[in-house]
Known about the structure:
It is built from 4 helices and 15 strands. It has one domain. A hairpin with a 5-residue loop joins strand 2 and strand 3 (130-132). 30% of the residues lie in helices and 24% in strands. The strands form 3 sheets. Strands 1, 2, 3, 4, 7, 8, 12, 13, 14 and 15 form a 10-stranded mixed β-sheet that branches. Strands 10-9-11 form a 3-stranded antiparallel β-sheet, with no helix packed on it. A two-stranded parallel sheet has the order 5-6. It is α/β, with parallel strands linked by helices. It starts with a helix and ends with a strand. The longest helix has 61 residues, at 2-62. It comes from Coprococcus hominis (ex Arizal et al. 2022).
Amino acid sequence: MKNLRMLFCMLMGLLIGSVLGIVIANLTHNQQKKKHAQMAATEVTATADATAGDVATPMEEQMHTAQDATGTDAAVPDEAQPEALTEILNRSLVSYAQLAEVSCRQLVVVDADHDKATISMYICDTDGKWTDTGLTTEGYVGANGVSRESYEGSRMTPAGVFPIGEAFYIEEKPKTGLSTFQITENTYWVDDEDSELYNQRIELDGEKTWQSAERMIEYTDAYKYGFVVEYNQNPVEPGRGSAIFFHVGQQPTLGCIATTEDMVLAYLAELSKDMHPYIVIQ
């Protein structure tokens, strides 16, 4: 009898253990499913955020940036805008709403094909309608084309959308609505990646604190006229690229954009800092 009771207890123990095991397994499985679902949701959110970040990065870094620009209603529907401009903005991951957010009303467009480019210009009226100015010409970009991964010494022109900065000249001041500076014997643009002055224009007649810089007066033909492309500024990332200009030239560049002197002067004459001009390079 005693043996039967012991056997019964053993069987009951095994039964209870099995039931508990099944319950625990089910609970664990459900928790894992819930965890996987949460992870999946997190991944989707992260992917969406990353995608939004990828789209916004050029604008955030170089257009000082449109926050939640996608929520802004454009005054003019995209379908009514110039088809060629819409196409290149789409490739540049930029919307008309984002341009409106930064009050941009002038665009110089550089549509590159390896080391050559078609350059054009658009202007926006107060209603938000963009129009081709007809200032279209051929020009050149970096010898290795354009890229979002350009870096110092890559001979690539940076792709993206960037503010147009100051105009420059060596002798005769051009007609322009941009702020200007004259290149002198003491004008340098620092390209030393290890210098705290990297990618800055410096006027200095004395001891240099950098290892490498462009002495702009030495480029008498190229820098006769031009304007600064505000790439890799605010903040400056060492090694990302420096001294990106739109200037005079008839051959592939080290990373700048170049075209004929007449056309550089034509663009300068149209550009105005009051229109918050940008350049699209793609």
